[in-house]
Amino acid sequence: MSIAGIDKSQIDAMVAQLKLAAARMDGAVVNPLQAPSAGTPKLDFAEALKNSLDQVNAVQTQSQTLGKKFAMGEDNVQLSDVMISMQKANIAFQTTVQVRNKLVSAYHDIMNMQI
After folding, report:
1. What is the DSSP track for 33-78?
2. DSSP codes of every residue in 1-25
3. Contact, 14 vs 32, CB < 8 A?
4. CA dihedral 21, 23, 24, 26 (to 10 degrees)
5. Which of 25, 36, 83, 94 has the most other CB atoms within 10 Å of its CB?
6. Of 5, 32, 37, nearest to 18 (Cα)?
């Protein structure tokens, strides 16, 4: 049984797919074969992380607000809406915790590398 390695064309195809998926998330249409131009804005990791944390915070705040409205007896708030928003907030928070754990693990792996 022989084990074949990944050649450069497969790696290039994977990178092109990732770029295309990222562009779809941003709402832009990008040609995967086109090299990035000089005017393309670069994504900052700290900025992306802050935006993600802000989104998680917004989901949690919305869930708390909806829960308070339901507890106060407002007629336009259903229990199912409250429960769904609470589950969304919980999933968002758990995802954030898992990403943090992966980042810490990667940091420790890098710090323990021998030079």
Report:
1. TSPPPTTSPPPPHHHHHHHHHHHHHHHHHHHHHHHHHHHHT-TT--
2. ---PPPPHHHHHHHHHHHHHHHHHH
3. no
4. 130
5. 83
6. 32
Rounded (10°) CA dihedral 12, 16, 22, 27: 170
Half-sphere exposure of 69 (CA within 13 A, CB side): 16
Which tokens go with 46? 């700290």
Q: What is the DSSP letter of 32?
A: T
List, for residues 67-111, the tens digit of each pLDDT value.
Answer: 999 999 998 999 999 999 999 999 999 999 999 999 999 999 999
